[in-house]
Task: structure prediction
Amino acid sequence: MKKSNLMMILGSLCLLALFVMPMWIITLEAPQYPDGIGMDIWINKIEDHNPNDIKNINLMNHYVGMKPIPDHMKEFDIFPYVIGIMSAFGVIIGVSGNRKLFLTWFIVMVVLGAVGMYDFYIWEYDYGHNLDPKAAIKIPGQGYQPPLIGSKQILNFTAHSWPAAGAYFLFTGILMSLGAFLMKRKEQEQNEKV
Amino acid sequence: MKIKTNILNTCILSGVALMLTSCSYTGGNQGALSGNIAERVYVAPGEQDDYYAFLSGGYSGNLTVYGLPSGRMFKEIPVFSQFPTSGYGYSEETKPLLNTSHGFIPWDDLHHPDISQTNGELDGRWIFVNANNTPRIARISLETFETEEVIEIPNSAGNHSSSFVTENSEYVVAGTRFSVPVPQRDMSIDEYKSNFKGAVSFVSVDEESGHMDLAFQILLPGFNYDLAHPGRGKSHGWMFFSTYNTEEANTLLEVNASQNDKDFIAAINWKKAEEYISEGRFREIQTEYAHNIYDERTHTATSTMKKTVKVLDPADLPGLVYLLPTPKSPHGCDVDPSGEYIIGSGKLSASLTAHSFTNMLSAIENEEFDGDAYGIPILNYDDVVGGVVEQAGLGPLHTEFDGRGNAYTTFFISSEVVKWRLGTWEVVDRKPTYYSVGHLMIPGGNSRKPFGKYVVAMNKITKDRYLPTGPEMEHSAQLYDISGEKMELLLDFPTHGEPHYAAGAPAELIAPNSKKFYKLEDNDHPYAVKSEANTRLERDGNTVHVYMTTIRSHFAPDNIEGIKVGDVVYFHVTNLEQDFDVPHGIAMIGANTSELLIMPGQTKTFRWEPDKVGVWPFYCTDFCSALHQEMQGYVRVSPADSDIELSWSLDGE
Result:
């Protein structure tokens, strides 16, 4: 098998890491939480970073009227299929060795990634802005939306939002498909020379 | 009389001498050196101490936890006394811990803490402490820093020579200070001699759970049993008890019990005792004592009354007990880390006596005895003595070891700590204390592996050390660095109650195991509710059970109606938090108990008997959030004949 095909297959398989590792992590730091509290976002669930973190995040957030972190979201039903199907397609494309399909898969993944991030942003916006009108603490103009990526000060908390291990596999997988596409072109050029 | 006057004179003289020495001492050591000393006890904000020190609270009935070298107090652990700070001894769950054969005894005099050991080294699992007044031994968990078990010691009075653990925590011992009739009966005090007995008790400790059991008692002659230390290493299997009043006086002991030139250290071969027990050579006698166990999952203690105890009589059991003559009313009885030397400090003597375990064994083998006391062989002083530290000071009390061949002894009358060498018996160094020092503590001091960096001296009198606070001041502890050739005084810090012995351990042995909260899912309290949806009230006749929860920053329910005058109301309150150091409190107006302080994941109960019609508030006593002040509720109390039904709500729902 050609190196580029193998690379495409391996890149596609990288996506499967999302089933065993979290995709994103949001942590909150404040003087009262010297160890920080956080949540790990997976493709199908949100988990405590340390035991009881979500419970404690909800406890604090209720003072400003934020909704509890959801147990379940519709994305959790969709994402695993999207990832599974794209991974499978990628393997098939890798076996087929069709260079154009390599690029197509790459573009589709970039688009899906962008859509995913946008969806994440929408959720964060709603989570940080859709507040209970009876909230105990109201600060005019204050939103509580965590950063999409990076760090941000929200009242007494420093919120950090960063990709987690699963996402790095995802990025690597996507880049590998682009790499496979470029390599394939070189391989074909060399073949033509021969 | 003559002896007494002499001692008084020496006290006065030494007092003067001490004032002189201490003046020159403080005058000479200032400037750069004192700055350096400040740095050595300074633990910067955010940094933590290297050692835990557990100081007995004496008549406070509590154990206090300090950091070394900073001398900062971290916590007061209630053991034998009610403690309104947390509701210990007031809550329905903890009241059984203070049950005894005399009923509910909510106070005691806590003397000697000792940390559990494995292979002669501290294992940091539990700390055992004794109640002196109504004899008891308690076990405190070093995971939760809570009292988990209390066992009463029958046939005993003034439980002073305890609680000291053997080198694998096989036993915790309890020795009686006062000899008493065994079994107790109505008899003339005049008949003390030969009728009163001194019971020493061996309490076994379950390796896994730590649960204690009174394995057996040895009925010794009617002396006073003062302190004890376990053998270790080569002397593992033996326990040594110091005695006074071998005169068996029963009145004006300050004179009548100070007549004999020598009293005894009783050496007990507990391995031999185990053999006799397994051979059935014991008597089972009727008695009564309470055994109280706290279950961390139900958050509740239960008290069981036990009725019998196995008793060994050393007169009939050869090889069980030997008496080592020791000058003069020995108080401390300390065994060096190798287990070879048993140091007896005659508190009315100027010298220290170190018995040699090896010499003791050969004297026993050669059966060279100097008579007997009630059938117990007395060894010859000259045969067993290993060395004497001559004229080391006045009123030696207690000795600890640094693991480098040095011993440190406190001298009560001359108010000093004296450092001397084991084997050469030479005094190496001495430092004043302020004033009248009792016990001293080196972390790991009662083990084969002392951590010989610091010694803490516990003083009985504080006088000019701190700002005055009325006629009484807290006692003072003093911290010395003993890592060099000369001891250096680093720090004074006040202690609570009257600290007797202390135990210490490196922080890394204990801190990693410390519990941060109780898991709600593990809470098996019969009245626990784990969600607000299950909060409710239940009436059974005139008893009402309130199943309540707390979370930042409200109670559920917070409006209660249908309670009547004459009801007995139990508030069972579960703290739903699952975060470190977030307890909630609850206090009810007119409740004849205390507040409760409920740890995250825990359930506690208090009893309230409303006696007046009205609408009565309750509130959270422990600051918990920005809306702590809003954490409150009401109970409506109606007349006894009212027909208002029980109802409850939160947010009107």
